[in-house]
Design goal:
251 residues; mainly alpha; globular; disordered N terminus
Length: 251
């Protein structure tokens, strides 16, 4: 039998992969992807046409996107630490929490598939960031505002990662998971800012197919929810330990 800490070290790796993938899916969500170019232009103090034709403008947008990602990370690190602290407090009920969290994630997945609609997830509570464009501080503040204001829209995917963080019962690992989620959400902003002319076509294609992307997200959420509720993530983590003993050196 593996020690608990060793098991958590192994289970953290697939959880981090899920967290990073979830961040990318959040970027591709209907309430994020369409606003990326104007948001980047505003944060960088440039226009969308400048981002297409002017390398200097794209450079300013990249710097703004970096500080924007730092703002995102600040909020999500706090959320991850808080969720993990709650998990440690409720350690004795963790198996029940995992089942309940898995069911909630499955419900969110069904929402994405259109089986039914949860109206509160079809809206976002945007925070008024004021006139903060064109500065690093403004971009950081907008990152904070984005993380708070778009939480209802990101809720289905974010809740799955928060549930995984709660299951770790470790503040550091929970914060790490949400930090990786923030990277998965923020890195595409950086890539769009840096390679905007080359990515205009793919982004236009993704916008035309947001419905398909949303359904793929739904399937993935249901898969993760089932894995959480049935304990498959635990089984998978033990399998990883047996298949890759080197994982025992982590954590």
């Amino acid at each position: 039998m593996f020690e608990t800490e060793t098991f958590l070290a192994a289970s953290l790796l697939p959880a981090l992969l899920i967290a990073f993938s979830a961040g990318i899916l959040s970027f591709l969500s209907p309430c994020v992807l369409p606003i990326v170019p104007p948001y980047l232009a505003y944060m960088g103090g440039v226009s969308v046409s400048d981002m297409e034709d002017d390398k200097g403008a794209r450079g300013r947008a990249v710097v703004a996107a970096l500080f924007f990602m730092l703002g995102l990370s600040t909020v999500f690190l706090i959320l991850g630490a808080g969720a993990s602290a709650l998990g440690r407090t409720l350690l004795g009920y963790q198996s029940y929490l995992q089942i309940g969290a898995g069911i909630v994630v499955i419900i969110f997945g069904l929402h994405f598939l259109g089986v039914f609609r949860l109206r509160f997830l079809d809206q976002e509570m945007r925070v008024d960031a004021g006139d903060q464009g064109g500065s690093a501080f403004g971009a950081y503040f907008l990152g904070l505002a984005f993380a708070f204001g778009w939480t209802p829209c990101l809720g289905p995917i974010l809740s799955a990662i928060l549930s995984l963080a709660t299951g770790t019962g470790d503040v550091g690992k929970g914060a790490l998971m949400l930090g990786v989620y923030a990277v998965g959400l923020g890195v595409p902003f950086l890539l769009v800012a840096a390679f905007f002319p080359q990515l205009k076509g793919p982004m236009a294609w993704m916008k035309r197919n947001l419905g398909v992307i949303e359904k793929i997200s739904g399937v993935l959420l249901i898969t993760v929810g089932l894995a959480m509720a049935t304990g498959f993530l635990t089984v998978f983590a033990y399998w990883m330990l047996e298949a890759f003993p080197v994982l025992m050196i982590f954590g």
